[in-house]
Specification:
- 25% of the residues lie in helices and 29% in strands.
- It is of the alpha+beta class.
- A six-stranded antiparallel beta sheet has the order 1-2-3-10-5-8, with no helix packed on it. Strands 4-9-6-7 form a four-stranded antiparallel beta sheet, with no helix packed on it.
C-alpha cells in the first residue's frame, strides 16, 4: 500500500508559519530602517537580491537559516534577535552603559543602540560620525519619524536637499519619508543622540 502525504499544511500550522514569517520580516525591516539602511545596501552586504529581501520583509518568502544568519550579521545582530517575541513584563527599567549594543554601519558610523522598544516602535542610539562619514552617499527616505540631538561636534543634515548645520545642543526632527542625508563634513568626530520612531503619525 502506498501512503501519500499531502504537501498542504494543516490550517493551524499554516497560520502559525505565516505569522512567524511576517514577524521575522517586520523585525528585519525595523532593524534595517533603524540603521538607516536601504534594501540595496542590505542586498550589497548580504549578496541577496533586493527583490528577495523585499519578499522576506513582507513575509512573502521563507528565508533559509543561512540567509537569516547572513541578514542578521549585516544588520549587526544575531539570528535569534530576528525571532520576534512578546515584551517581557519584567523588562529592566535601567539600561547600563555596558549593555549598549555597538555596531558599525556600512558607512563606518558607530551606532550604540541604547534601547530598541519594539512594542512602542522606538529605538534610541548614540551615533558617532568620524570625519567624512554619514548614513549614506545619497539621501534616503523610509517610514517613520526621527529626532536627532547633537552631543558633540558639527553635523550636517540635509532634508529635502536643504542642508541644516547642527552644533552641540541643537535638535532636528523630521518625517523620515522626506529624503534626508546625515554627514560629518568636518575634521572632528561628531556624537549624536538619535531617536527613531517606526511611525510618522
Amino acid at each position: 500500500m502506498t501512503i501519500e502525504f499531502s504537501p498542504e499544511l494543516p490550517d493551524d500550522v499554516a497560520e502559525t508559519t505565516a505569522s512567524t514569517l511576517a514577524a521575522i520580516g517586520e523585525r528585519i525591516r525595523e532593524v534595517r530602517q533603524a540603521r538607516n539602511m536601504t534594501l540595496q545596501v542590505l542586498a550589497d552586504s548580504t549578496k541577496l537580491s533586493v527583490s528577495m529581501l523585499s519578499l522576506v520583509e513582507r513575509g512573502r518568502a521563507s528565508p533559509s537559516i543561512g540567509s537569516l544568519i547572513v541578514i542578521a550579521s549585516a544588520l549587526g545582530i544575531t539570528m535569534s534577535d530576528l525571532i520576534a517575541s512578546e515584551p517581557n513584563a519584567d523588562e529592566e527599567l535601567v539600561v547600563r552603559a555596558s549593555q549598549h549594543h555597538v555596531v558599525e554601519t556600512p558607512k563606518h558610523v558607530v551606532r550604540r543602540l541604547i534601547r530598541e522598544d519594539r512594542t512602542r516602535g522606538l529605538s534610541i542610539a548614540i551615533n558617532e560620525y568620524e570625519p567624512n562619514t554619514g548614513n549614506s552617499d545619497a539621501a534616503l527616505s523610509h517610514a517613520g519619524f526621527e529626532y536627532g540631538f547633537v552631543l558633540e561636534g558639527i553635523l550636517t543634515v540635509e532634508v529635502d536637499k536643504t542642508p541644516y548645520i547642527l552644533k552641540s545642543g541643537d535638535l532636528i526632527s523630521y518625517n523620515s519619508r522626506r529624503p534626508h542625508k546625515i554627514w560629518n563634513y568636518g575634521r572632528r568626530k561628531v556624537r549624536t543622540l538619535w531617536f527613531n520612531l517606526d511611525r510618522d503619525t
